[in-house]
Amino acid sequence: xxxxxxxxxxxxxxxxxxxxxxxxxxxxxxxxxxxxxxxxxxxxxxxxxxxxxxxxxxxxxxxxxxxxxxxxxxxxxxxxxxxxxxxxxxxxxxxxx
Length: 97
Hints:
Elements: H1 2-13, H2 18-23, E1 42-45, E2 50-53, E3 56-59, E4 64-67, E5 71-73, E6 79-84, E7 87-93
Parallel strand pairs: 5-7
Antiparallel strand pairs: 1-6, 2-3, 3-4, 6-7
Protein backbone atom coordinates (compact mmCIF):
# COMPACT_ATOMS: atom_id res chain seq x y z
CA UNK A 1 0.00 0.00 0.00
CA UNK A 2 2.86 2.40 0.74
CA UNK A 3 4.33 1.81 -2.70
CA UNK A 4 0.99 2.68 -4.30
CA UNK A 5 0.83 5.90 -2.27
CA UNK A 6 4.37 6.89 -3.25
CA UNK A 7 3.74 6.16 -6.94
CA UNK A 8 0.51 8.15 -6.85
CA UNK A 9 2.20 11.14 -5.22
CA UNK A 10 5.04 11.07 -7.75
CA UNK A 11 2.62 10.86 -10.65
CA UNK A 12 0.64 13.83 -9.39
CA UNK A 13 3.79 15.82 -8.72
CA UNK A 14 5.16 15.32 -12.24
CA UNK A 15 5.35 18.49 -14.32
CA UNK A 16 2.60 19.14 -16.82
CA UNK A 17 3.34 18.32 -20.42
CA UNK A 18 3.78 21.05 -23.01
CA UNK A 19 0.33 20.21 -24.36
CA UNK A 20 -1.24 20.93 -20.95
CA UNK A 21 0.59 24.26 -20.89
CA UNK A 22 -1.81 25.90 -23.34
CA UNK A 23 -4.95 23.80 -23.12
CA UNK A 24 -5.76 25.21 -19.70
CA UNK A 25 -7.37 28.21 -21.44
CA UNK A 26 -5.22 30.78 -19.68
CA UNK A 27 -2.43 31.28 -22.21
CA UNK A 28 -2.77 34.52 -24.14
CA UNK A 29 -0.56 36.45 -26.52
CA UNK A 30 1.20 39.09 -24.40
CA UNK A 31 0.55 41.84 -26.98
CA UNK A 32 -2.75 41.04 -28.71
CA UNK A 33 -4.31 39.34 -25.65
CA UNK A 34 -5.78 36.66 -27.96
CA UNK A 35 -6.23 33.23 -26.43
CA UNK A 36 -3.56 30.83 -27.65
CA UNK A 37 -6.18 28.20 -28.44
CA UNK A 38 -6.29 24.54 -27.65
CA UNK A 39 -3.51 22.02 -28.01
CA UNK A 40 -5.06 20.77 -31.25
CA UNK A 41 -4.19 24.12 -32.86
CA UNK A 42 -0.71 24.24 -31.37
CA UNK A 43 2.06 22.51 -33.28
CA UNK A 44 5.76 22.02 -32.71
CA UNK A 45 7.88 23.71 -35.37
CA UNK A 46 11.11 22.36 -36.79
CA UNK A 47 13.89 24.84 -35.89
CA UNK A 48 14.79 25.09 -39.59
CA UNK A 49 11.42 26.84 -40.12
CA UNK A 50 12.28 29.69 -37.73
CA UNK A 51 14.77 32.42 -38.59
CA UNK A 52 16.06 34.98 -36.10
CA UNK A 53 15.77 38.49 -37.55
CA UNK A 54 16.20 41.97 -36.18
CA UNK A 55 13.39 42.51 -33.70
CA UNK A 56 11.92 39.00 -33.75
CA UNK A 57 11.51 35.73 -35.62
CA UNK A 58 10.44 34.93 -39.18
CA UNK A 59 8.32 31.78 -39.61
CA UNK A 60 9.56 30.44 -42.92
CA UNK A 61 6.52 28.27 -43.71
CA UNK A 62 4.08 31.22 -43.57
CA UNK A 63 6.51 34.16 -43.94
CA UNK A 64 5.03 35.65 -40.75
CA UNK A 65 7.12 37.94 -38.58
CA UNK A 66 6.72 37.49 -34.81
CA UNK A 67 8.17 40.45 -32.85
CA UNK A 68 10.05 39.69 -29.65
CA UNK A 69 7.22 41.27 -27.61
CA UNK A 70 4.92 38.41 -28.67
CA UNK A 71 7.39 35.59 -27.95
CA UNK A 72 6.59 33.49 -24.89
CA UNK A 73 8.94 31.04 -23.16
CA UNK A 74 8.52 27.45 -24.31
CA UNK A 75 7.47 25.02 -21.58
CA UNK A 76 9.80 22.29 -22.88
CA UNK A 77 12.55 24.02 -24.90
CA UNK A 78 10.86 23.21 -28.21
CA UNK A 79 9.46 25.78 -30.64
CA UNK A 80 5.64 25.90 -30.74
CA UNK A 81 3.08 27.98 -32.59
CA UNK A 82 -0.69 28.23 -32.10
CA UNK A 83 -2.51 28.95 -35.35
CA UNK A 84 -6.07 29.28 -36.49
CA UNK A 85 -7.74 31.25 -39.22
CA UNK A 86 -4.49 31.27 -41.17
CA UNK A 87 -2.61 33.32 -38.58
CA UNK A 88 -0.27 32.60 -35.70
CA UNK A 89 -1.95 33.49 -32.42
CA UNK A 90 0.82 32.55 -29.97
CA UNK A 91 4.49 31.72 -30.40
CA UNK A 92 6.63 29.84 -27.88
CA UNK A 93 10.42 29.74 -28.11
CA UNK A 94 13.06 28.36 -25.74
CA UNK A 95 13.92 31.03 -23.21
CA UNK A 96 17.63 30.90 -24.10
CA UNK A 97 17.25 33.10 -27.22
